[in-house]
Structure formats: structure tokens, C-alpha cells
Design a protein that fits this description.
extended
């Protein structure tokens, strides 16, 4: 599968910021060379000296960029599902199931008096759970909603 990622400055929001707040674009592009981190971009836009109208326009463009990114994820998942490889079709559900089993096991073990989970493991599992569960259920849900609106 080809990688057709644009640099941030070549996206719609990047072009808009280049026109309205080039100093902000320079700071963002240095940190985010590819698409991504749009929440950070939105926070930087909100704190910038742009006019309220330009901030709203930039916010709309950032949201559109996020939706394009979600569509790309859906396309990658579709490509995985059409693959002949059993693993590529099942890696996401297997990751979700194994992470869930691990969290349940650690929760049960942690309820005993002699077992204690170190805080760095809790933080790791929290980040993994948010990423995997959010990615699997939220992105899949957004994909289904977008199909409904397209129909």
C-alpha cells in the first residue's frame, strides 16, 4: 500500500495557516511534519493572535483534516480485510481481546492482598486501553456513521 501522506504545511489547514498566521505554521510544521496531532494544532490556534473568524475557519479546516485522516484509517482497515493473510485480518481483534484479558487478570490479581501493580504498568495499560479500545470502537463507529450519511 502506498504512503501518500502530505506534509502538514501542504494540508488545507496548513495552507490556511500559511496565509493567516505563518509564524504559527512554522512552529507547528517543525513539530508535526506529517498529518496528525490536530488537537495540539487546535489548541495552538485557539491561543494565537488570529481573529475570531480566522480561528473558526481554521477550526473547521482542522476538523475536515481529522475526518480525512479517519477515512484513511478506514481505507487501511478495508485493505487489511481484503488481504489473504489471516493475521492482517485478525490482528486488531486479537490485540483488543488480549489487552482486555490482561486488564481483567491484573484487576483480579490486584484485588488480592499480596499482589500490587506498579503505577508505571497501570499508566501503560491505561494508554494502551484508550488507544486500542478507542481506535477499534470509535473509529469503527465513525466509519459506520459516515456510511449512513453518505447513503
Amino acid at each position: 500500500m502506498k504512503n501518500n501522506r502530505k506534509e502538514f504545511r501542504d494540508t488545507k489547514i496548513g495552507i490556511f495557516l500559511n496565509e493567516k498566521a505563518p509564524e504559527l505554521l512554522g512552529a507547528i510544521a517543525a513539530v508535526l511534519p506529517e498529518k496528525g496531532g490536530l488537537a495540539i494544532v487546535k489548541n495552538l490556534i485557539e491561543g494565537s493572535s488570529m481573529s475570531p473568524e480566522d480561528k473558526r475557519a481554521a477550526d473547521i479546516l482542522a476538523h475536515e483534516q481529522f475526518m480525512e485522516y479517519q477515512a484513511e484509517i478506514s481505507e487501511r482497515w478495508k485493505a487489511d480485510m481484503t488481504s489473504d493473510s489471516w493475521l492482517s485480518k485478525n490482528v486488531r481483534p486479537l490485540t483488543l481481546i488480549s489487552l482486555f484479558i490482561c486488564i481483567v487478570a491484573l484487576t483480579i490479581l490486584d484485588s488480592t492482598k499480596t499482589f500490587e501493580v506498579a503505577i508505571h504498568w497501570v499508566d501503560l495499560y491505561k494508554a494502551l486501553a484508550l488507544t486500542v479500545f478507542g481506535g477499534y470502537f470509535v473509529v469503527r463507529g465513525a466509519e459506520k456513521v459516515s456510511k449512513i450519511y453518505r447513503a
